[in-house]
Amino acid sequence: MHAHFAQPHQAAAAAAVAAAAMAVSNTSSTSSTSEAHALTPVHHTATKTEWMEAIEQQRLERSTLNRLIINYLVTEGFKEAAEKFAEEAGISLNNIDLTSLDERLRIREAIETGRIQDAISLINTKAPELLDQNRQLAFHLKQKKGLLFQQQHLIELIRSNLIDEALTYAQIHLAEFAEEEIKMRQELEKTMALLVFDKPLESPYGYLMQISHRQQVANEINSALLIYQNDESESDLSMLVRMATYMQEKLDNKQLRYPKLVDIAGGKLEDS
Amino acid sequence: MPSYDDDLPTQDEEILLKKLVENGEAEQRIRAVSEIKNLVIGSKRCKAAFFRAGTAETLYNLLKEFSSLNHTELLVEIIDCISSFVKTNNKTILGCIQHLFALLTLGIESADLCESCLRCLRSFFLPKLSTKIFSKVDYSNPFLTPIPFVLLCDQDTHKPPSLITQPQKISSATQLSSIEQYSPFDIVFENPQLLDILIRLLSLSKSAQLSIVEILCCLCVNNERQQQLVDKNIIPAIMHILVENIHDKQQNNHTNRITQASLTDEYIVGVCLKLFCSLCYENPCVAQQLHGTIHTETNQTLCEIISSLLNKIHRPVVISYYAAKFFVNLCKTKVLSADHPSVSLESLTTLVHLSTKSTINKCVYLYIECLDTLIYLLNGNSALHHTAMYTEQLLSKLFIYIFTPTKILDEHADESSVVQLRSSSLTLLAVLSSHHEDIKKRIAEQENLISTAIDCCRSPHLSLQLAALCLFHGLSRSVHQLRTTFNDTICDILLDAIKSSDLSVVKISSCVISNIVLEFSTCRTRLLSGGILEILLNFLTHTDHDLCINSIWALRNLSYLSVLQIKQDIINGLTIDRIYSLLDQCTDEQFLLCLLSLLRNLFDEKDTDALLPLFNATKLLTTLQQLLEKNHPEGIHREITTLIDHLNSSNNPSQQRVSSESMNSTCRTSLFPEYVCDEMDQLDCS
């Protein structure tokens, strides 16, 4: 993996980097307090104390952290937070397109509050070719729209014609996607399966009706919009977290013992 | 056919469509267009249904109606909607192209409107989204995914027929009324000023640059169009954009400012490279021009600039690909030799690396593109084969693509991608096996490869059949392989393939058969008992020229060191009268050369006495003498002279016959002749 940004000075990533360095340089350390696995030769790297000392020695520049935070807030579309943080930290946002950020925020809000038609309208104004180019996105938005349509009328399910309306919507607007790709067909089947449950929210596919699923779609759209306007679709911070996870997996695969970062958000290390 | 193909608008949609044509205030019009736009974008069903209801024409009329008024917002909505329609179907609204250019000519101040026009124009040139190959592609990254440009060099099989032929000259009087007869390309090139407009707008914005350069890529459909574009002086303009964006990208990488990383510069660099590839594809003149182009500000040549992109380690895949492809195209047009470092050390290694890179598994098309470009480069450049095979990095990956492609591809990868990946891999193996004996041996001995190729011959997918037959063709160019690899099963497959209803299958199988009928081949007997002689004789009068040549070629090889019976069968099949008629009247030099070689093989030492009386020796010698006096190339004259010498020797036994070793190698019946039909130097991998 090649990072195209500044060195990973964030604590979590620094820990993982130090782990890799120490694992390579000190594979025969005898100072570990962990017991070796009965069958697998285990190489101990360092104690937790040594580990923390090594981390403390890593140079951390505040400006780097600030850049990471601004990058995250801007990428995810948290405009107000980005402006406030920039003001507190004394950073200029002149090189950031805040209008574009605003637009993405409005789209995200529309999706998360269930105003799918508004979201579609905003997307087609900002990125008129996106939904033609990305069939999966178009499907997810229409799927979401269809689900919300059903959801609004769930309490009246006893009326058979409402099921007919949901079916008609799916036939008219979603069937074309199911014809094209297995993945979308499977998703459509799950969506339609909600109709047969008395309590769809408690069914195996109830997650489709949760708010969290709307957030997932909103994240998907946000990433696609960033790519469409030729920006990076992922914040540097999320890339760092994934990098830390990846490096730890590599160390685990090599049967190395090291103080593993078990809670990335909290920066909590534990001997593994 | 999709289920929605016959759909019409629903009742609600009909109401909405009616609002389009109602005379109302601008706000009402904008709302109506916007609602229709939101239905159409992202929905093929809506596009098909609304198109059937005439909505596209209605929008075009609205565009004309409101162009003269200052309704920027409405115009953007209309154009974006038309753009969506055009992505699947541009029939009946080709006139839009001229209208969009007219709008751009007005010098409108709104950048949004300009960019909307350019996006719409771009949509006219892209192959339609309904095209089977691209219908399942994820366009989440519009630049990394196969933007379906109709490029000469992409060897698209779905090119509109009008692109391949030379444009007809039309009078301006008929232009407007018959606009629908022409393709978007014809329309643009008919009016030279339209290209000037595009070039002028390059300075508008980066977004405009992307759209315009992509359009220019699409316009490179044949050598004439390529030259027309170059004559418009686009090379310096595009070179300037290329260097500017390389520089901007480097600046962004080094800056300490808080800025969102922008990939625009990379995309523009990539699409500029693609344009240079498209301009010089199969065009030696333009290729030479590009080779000599110098960037005045930095004094670097274009080749140096592009070479520097190949030398960077952390470079985007698409930039690497098109930079490599540029040098491939220069090599194929003979502007650069195959051993030029930019070709052998940079391009070839980059393409091998990209073909085997594991992290681009979501972009399967890129694997296929790289493989196809390698096929193109290595076909006819045998000097590069060992370099390509170095460390077996490429070879091992090709075997994975052929045997277990699902290891590389996403589990939901559609079948057409898998088929294409396997076909391209097999074809590349075919090219690699076409020249060097050690490589042939290595490939042929790969476990399960021959049996897999046999299975592919029986596949319902034409591309797999052709690729497998290509592989057999490559391997058949070896005495050792003819004695070891080719078995009865392959013979039977070839006997079936030569009777196929698909001409491309027949042709490639005839290439293989022309080699495996040779005397030392294990297949010869089985082919003869399978009736190959009659099939070849029938093909001599086929309308396809290549097939005719392959057939006479195969007969020639069949007659080489053959027993008398087979020679007599050949003569009986051809008939003496027909042979004389061909000697007298045939103007096809390739055919004539093969026929003369055939005769020389027939009249080898031991069988001349038996066969010459059938021809009447005097008449034959007279005919050959007359032929010698005609204005044929030297190769034919040489063949005639050798044949006359043979015949004279048989008439006068005391005269020493010219030994076969002293003959020019081109006269010899050989596995490796220099003729196009067998394409010994270049396999027919189209």
Jot down its keywords.
heterodimer, A: 272 residues, mainly alpha, two-stranded parallel ribbon, two-stranded antiparallel sheet, 4 strands, 61% helix, 5% strand, B: 686 residues, 37 helices, 1% strand, elongated, disordered C terminus
Question: In terms of topology, how is this protein built?
Answer:
The complex is a heterodimer of chains A (272) and B (686).
Chain A (H helix, E strand, L loop, with lengths): L10 H15 L17 E2 L3 H9 L5 H15 L2 H11 L8 H15 L3 H11 L3 H4 L1 H18 L7 H21 L1 H12 L17 H18 L7 H18 L2 E2 L1 E5 L4 E4 L1
Parallel strand pairs in A: 1-2
Antiparallel strand pairs in A: 3-4
Helix pairs in contact in A: 1-2, 1-12, 3-4, 5-6, 5-11, 8-9, 8-11, 9-10
Chain B lengths: L10 H11 L4 H15 L3 H9 L2 H13 L4 H15 L8 H11 L5 H15 L46 H4 L8 H7 L1 H9 L5 H14 L3 H9 L2 H21 L9 H17 L3 H8 L2 E2 L4 E2 H9 L6 H16 L8 H16 L7 H15 L6 H4 L4 H11 L11 H18 L4 H8 L4 H9 L4 H14 L3 H6 L3 H10 L5 H14 L7 H6 L2 H8 L5 H15 L4 H11 L1 H10 L3 H14 L5 H8 L1 H12 L5 H18 L35
Antiparallel strand pairs in B: 1-2
Mean pLDDT of chain A: 74
Rg of Cα set of chain B: 30 Å
Instruction: Give the H and E element order of chain A.
Output: HEHHHHHHHHHHHEEE
How far the N terminus sits from the C terminus of chain A, by CA atoms, comes to 24 Å
Spatial strand sequence of the major β-sheet of chain B: 1-2
Largest sheet of chain A: 2 strands, parallel
Fraction of residues in H or I helices of chain A = 55-70%
CATH superfamily grouping of the domain at 11-134 in chain B: Leucine-rich Repeat Variant
Strand content of chain A: under 5%
Which strands sit side by side, in order, in the main sheet of chain A? 1-2
Question: Largest interface, per-chain counts?
Answer: A-B, 46 and 42 residues
